Amino acid sequence: MMRRLFSRKSPAGAAMLALFAGVLLVPLFPGVAHAYLDPGTGSMLLSALIGIAATVFFMVKTFYYKAAGIFYRLTGTAVPASGKNGIVFYSEGRQYWNTFRPVLEALDAKGESAAYLTSGEDDPGLSHPFTHVSARYIGSGNRAFAAMNMLEAGVCVMTTPGLDVLQIRRSPGVGHYAHLVHSPTDAALYKLYSFDWFDSVLCSGEHQIRSLRFLEQLRGTRAKELFRTGCPYMDVLADELAALPPSVTPSMEPGARLSAQGASAAPRVLLAPTWGRNGLLRRFGLDLLLPMADAGFSLTIRPHPQSRTAEPELLGDIALALAAYPNVAWDHGSSSLAAMVDSDVLVSDFSGIVFDYAFILERPVVTIAMDMDTRGMDAGDLAYPAWELDVLPELGASIAAENIRNLPETIRNLPPRAEFAARMRELRAKSLFNYRSSGAVAAEQILAVRQGLAGK
C-alpha cells in the first residue's frame, strides 16, 4: 500500500513524494531569508500547491468511498452481491423509471432475475409488481456512490454518464458496464468523456453510434460495443398515448382550430425548453413569450425540471411578468404527456421533448434557430454539427432569433396535420431503432452480454 502511495508512476504518488520531500527539506534552511521571488517562480509554486491540494482531496475522497463500502459490508447494509453472472440496473431516481421499465419487464417476463437499485425513495420501480426482479433503494449522494463503487455483478446497466470520470467508479466486482441512453438526442450533447469508459452503449439511433465512434477514434480510446437498441421511454409514452380515449387526443390544426361553438379558436401552444445557457427562457425570456401571450394564444409553459433547481429566480421573474395574462398557464407535472396531448404545437429548443412530441404525437414543433454552446460537451470535439442542428428544422418550422416576434404568424402557417404526420413517421423510422419494441430488444442484448461474460 505504501509503495503504491509513493509511486512516481501515479499523479497521487508524485504529489505525495513532492510533499514529503518538502517536509524533510524545511529544517535545512534558515528561519529567515531575504530573497527576491520573481513572478514566474511564484506562479509555478502556486500551481504546484494547487495540484498537491487537488491530489490530496481526491485521495481522501477515494478513501472515503472505499471505507464506506467496507463499512456497509461489515454492517450488512451493502448492496447484496448478485454473483459474477448477475444483472444490476442503477437509476438516479423516478425520472428514469420509464427508461428502465420496458427492459425490466421484458427480463421479468422471460423469467430472468435482475436487481433494480435506485437513488429515488419515490421511484415507482420500488413497488412495481415484478416476479423475478428485486428493487431496492440504496440512498443518494455519497451513500449511493459508495455502494455502487463496491458493487458485485456480471453486468451493470445505468443511465448515469461519466463512469470513472465523475463519482461512480468502476468496481472490481463488476464484469461489464453498459450505458442505456435515455434520450434520442446526439450522444455528443453530454458532458465531456461521458461514455468513454463504458464497455457498451445501448443506442437509440444511428446518429449516436456515429458520434461515439468518431470520439473513440479521436481520443484513441478502446472501441465499445454499440448496440442498436432504441429509446425505451418512448415506447412507454406511445403505449400510454394509445391507451387514451379518442376524445382526449383530437386531431386539430394549429392554425385553424375550432371551438365548441364552431368559431375559430386560438392555437394551444406548449413551450417546453431545455435549461441553462442553451435554453429559450434564459436566452430570450419575455421577448419570446409576450408575442404569443399578446396574440391570445393559449400558452402553457413547462420548464425543464432542472430549471426549478438551477434558475428559480429566472422562472419567478417570468411568472411575475405574465401574471396578468389569463391565457398563460404553468405546468410542473412529473409527466409531460398530459401537457403534450393538450396542445396543438410545441415551441422548444434543444430539449429532448421535441422528439417525443414530433415522433409520438406526430404534431409540429417550432424551434428558434440559434448556435449551440458546446463548451464542456463532447459535441465541441466533433468535426461536424450535432445531429439536432440538421434535424430540428424538419420537425415543423424554424425561425431566426431576430424574427421571434413573428412567432405567432409562423405557428398559424404550419403545414396541415396529415402532411406533417406522414413526414414524421418517415423521419422516425430513420432516426430511431426498434420503435415500440426497444425494451425487449435491450433485454436480449443485455442477456447476450451476460452470456459472453459467462463464456470467458
Q: What's the layout of helices and strands?
A:
Blueprint: H1 2-5, H2 11-25, H3 39-74, E1 87-91, H4 97-109, E2 114-118, E3 133-137, H5 141-149, E4 152-158, E5 173-180, E6 200-203, H6 206-219, E7 225-228, H7 232-243, E8 257-258, E9 264-265, E10 268-271, H8 280-283, H9 286-294, E11 298-301, H10 307-310, H11 312-321, E12 328-330, H12 337-341, E13 345-348, H13 353-361, E14 365-369, H14 387-391, E15 396-400, H15 407-412, H16 417-431, H17 438-454
Parallel strand pairs: 1-2, 1-4, 2-3, 4-5, 5-6, 6-7, 10-11, 10-13, 11-12, 13-14, 14-15
Antiparallel strand pairs: 8-9
DSSP summary: helix tally? 17
**Portion in helices:** 40-55%
Instruction: Report the CATH C-level class of the largest domain.
Output: Alpha Beta
Count of all domains: 3
Largest beta-sheet characterization: 7 strands, parallel
The second-level CATH architecture of the largest domain is 3-Layer(aba) Sandwich
Strands, count? 15
Label the structural class.
alpha/beta
CATH-defined fold name of the largest domain: Rossmann fold
State the strand order across the main sheet.
Answer: 3-2-1-4-5-6-7
Distance between the termini: 30 Å
* Strand residue content: 5-15%
* CATH level-four homologous superfamily name of the largest domain: Glycogen Phosphorylase B
**So what's the overall shape?**
globular
